[in-house]
Write a structure and sequence with these properties.
The complex is a heterodimer. Chain A is mainly alpha-helical. Chain A has a single domain, classed as Orthogonal Bundle (MetI-like fold). Chain A is built from ten helices and no strands. In chain A, helix 9 packs across helix 10. The longest helix of chain A is centred in the middle third of the chain and has 37 residues. Chain A starts with a helix and ends in a 5-residue tail after the last helix. The N terminus of chain A is likely disordered. Chain B has a domain of 198 residues: MetI-like fold. Chain B contains 14 helices and no strands. Chain B is 76% helix and 0% strand. In chain B, helix 5 packs across helix 13, helix 8 crosses helix 9 and helix 11 packs parallel to helix 12. Chain B is mainly α. The chains are: A mainly alpha, B mainly alpha. Chains A and B meet through helix 4, helix 5, helix 8 and helix 10 of A and helix 1, helix 6, helix 7, helix 11 and helix 12 of B.
């Protein structure tokens, strides 16, 4: 009886995890399509200003103008079109910054955890130093150094967040390195580098994939935070963070300028993180 | 390893970390484009003026010399002079520190209450819908960072139902009788509950925004260890004595389940303090983080250095204390 219920419970968990995975992937897929075809999908020019159409409410409210589905901001720019174009920056940062951070961090973590010795000593000290910086302040400082722009944001994210990967991968590589199969691979004549790439890496890969998904969500947030303090890309390009920053100042007059980009950002970050959690469950042998 | 040796090793690594932070921040901010001196002079200042003022702040010397002067000063507690306000960096930074500390500690307390309540309720009604709902809420809270929670709170309780203040630390028109900058603490000691209420009404939302992700972590971890503890023999024994489920959880299980959670809270607390930078900005709360962002925007190099070092000292300090406490509290490590 009890066992039957336990099995039932497990399949419940799996089904829920599956739904979560599909919902997140669906939202992110939709965003990718929207971002790719932004100029064709967006109903208006995201940069077009019209002071006569300033602070129009969304379509279901009184005073709405047809064609401006989610209303306009104080300069009369279409909120929906700006969200659609903002998806381009958000996803570009997520994919590029996330991937480079992953490559740098995972490589350093793998080297530290597998080679040990002085390599580990240096990398671990670096991680300690990095952990002593408040990350948001660090990123703002880096943007001040590098100047605003997409490339600067990506560099800042890589420089700050590589430790997230390095810490976890180092610990995992260390644990794997202590296992028998690694020793036998060495005895069988594999070199150190070969063992690392062929034996350790495949076993650490699931963890890396999960971390990468989470990092993409973090990258989206970092971009939004930098836009919020006005340090992101030039003010012309619509970004979710920039829209939120504008919306925050006029929230009492036009709540929709804040709410819609905020909801989009919220769902996107949630989707990345749920995708990561869902993948973690998939990889987890106990649940499988 | 004897305790003294652990202490020495940890102190040494902490010192190395702090030195590393000092070196990195000093050289990174000197690459920042934009001349801080030119920014503080009125338009129309001559090259001569800029050169004279640069000499005054020691910015005309070679980088390594500047670094040496700065380190020598820091050793004597002199962190230099802020370029924008022309006040000693140490005074400015220590003046703002209490605001940030009060915010962080309030957030920590809220996180412990929320997370604890979630874990206890989840354990009490485990296996049912209540636990499922708590798990979903936990997952949401964990997935979304403090910055977004802050914005959501502004919308909910600042605009939709305006019950809390969304900016500042205290209503500006109020007269403050305080001698220290620990307003919240001092208002309690002076029994000025009117001021205390005003301070809390300002602090509530930024503190909650910081607390939500940490509450989720505490809730998850504590529930997990509570459920494990509930299967132990001594808990079963308490149950056979006829104690009610709630009492067994609160009086028997909680005591043993709390330790692993507490050690984790220490590390997570440093992340929370790091989060104050953007949360203070979002709520225009006059703390260290808000001052830091202004300092970066104004290119106030000595002030940036001071703030980053102070944050690093707080982070490493908290980690050091947690590590040492863990060694003291965990007998296996002490005698190992």
């Amino acid at each position: 009886m009890a066992e039957a219920r336990a099995i039932d419970g497990r399949s419940m968990v799996r089904r829920k995890a599956g739904l979560r995975l599909w919902l997140s992937a669906g939202w992110l897929g939709l965003l990718c399509v929207v971002a790719l075809f932004a100029p064709w999908i967006a109903p208006k020019d995201p940069l077009a200003q019209d002071l006569f159409l300033g602070r129009l409410p969304p379509f279901w409210m009184e005073g709405a103008e047809p064609g401006y589905w989610l209303g306009t901001d104080s300069l009369g720019r279409d909120v929906l079109s700006r969200i659609i174009h903002g998806a381009r920056v958000a996803l570009a940062v997520a994919l590029i910054a996330g991937t480079i951070t992953c490559l740098v961090g995972a490589t350093l973590g793998l080297l530290a955890g597998f080679l040990r010795g002085w390599v580990d000593l240096v990398i671990s000290r670096l991680i300690d130093i990095w952990m002593a910086f408040p990350p948001v302040l660090f990123s703002i400082l880096l943007i001040a150094v590098l100047g605003p722009g997409l490339v600067s944001i990506i560099i800042a994210i890589v420089v700050i967040d590589w430790t997230r990967f390095a810490r976890v991968v180092r610990a995992e590589a260390m644990a794997q390195g202590a296992m028998d199969y690694v020793a036998s691979a060495r005895v069988a004549g594999r070199g150190r580098l070969g063992t690392m790439m062929r034996e350790i890496l495949p076993n650490v890969l699931p963890t890396i994939v999960v971390l990468l998904t989470l990092e993409m969500g973090i990258a989206v947030i970092v971009e939004a935070i930098l836009s919020f303090v006005n340090l992101s890309i030039s003010t012309d390009d619509p970004t979710w963070g920039g829209m939120i920053s504008e919306g925050r100042t006029s929230v009492h007059q036009a709540w929709w300028v804040l709410v819609f980009p905020l909801v989009t950002l919220f769902l996107t970050v949630l989707a990345f993180s749920q995708l990561g959690e869902g993948l973690k469950d998939r990889f987890d042998p106990v649940l499988r | 390893m004897p305790f003294l040796r652990i202490l020495l090793v940890r102190l040494l690594t902490t010192a190395i970390t702090l030195a590393g932070v000092a070196v990195i921040v000093f050289f990174v901010i000197r690459v920042v484009p934009g001349n801080p001196i030119a920014m503080m002079l009125p338009p129309g200042a001559t090259e001569d003026d800029i050169a004279r003022l640069s000499a005054l702040y020691g910015l005309d010397k070679p980088l390594l010399t500047q670094f040496g002067i700065w380190v020598a000063g820091v050793m004597q507690g002199d962190f230099g002079t802020s370029i924008t306000t022309r006040q000693p960096v140490l005074d400015l930074v220590l003046g703002r520190l209490p605001a940030t500390l009060e915010l962080s500690i309030m957030a920590l307390v809220m996180a412990m209450i929320l997370g604890g309540a979630a874990a206890l309720t989840g354990t009490r009604f485990r296996g049912g819908r209540t636990e499922g709902a708590i798990d979903v809420a936990n997952g949401m809270a964990l997935s979304v960072p403090d910055f977004l929670w802050g914005l959501v709170l502004i919308l909910l309780f600042g605009v939709l139902m305006p019950v809390f203040h969304i900016s500042g630390r205290v209503t500006p028109s109020l007269e403050l009788p305080f001698t220290t900058n620990f307003y919240l603490f001092e208002s309690l000691i002076r029994l000025r509950f009117d001021l205390w209420a005003d301070l809390v009404a300002h602090m509530f939302m930024p503190a909650l925004a910081l607390a939500i992700p940490l509450a989720a972590i505490i809730g998850q971890l504590l529930k997990q260890s509570l459920k494990e503890t509930m299967n132990l023999d001594y808990v079963t024994l308490a149950r056979t004595k006829g104690y009610g489920e709630t009492r067994v959880i609160l009086r028997e299980a909680l005591r043993n389940a709390a330790l692993p959670t507490l050690t984790l809270v220490g590390v997570q607390f440093t992340f929370l303090i790091g989060g104050t930078v953007i949360i203070e900005r979002l709520f225009s709360y006059e703390g260290l983080g808000n001052m830091a962002i202004d300092a970066v925007i104004n290119r106030d190099l000595p002030l940036i250095q001071g703030i980053v070092i102070l944050f690093a000292v707080i982070f490493t300090g908290v980690n050091l204390i947690v590590d040492l406490l863990y060694t003291v509290l965990n007998p296996r490590l002490r005698h190992g």
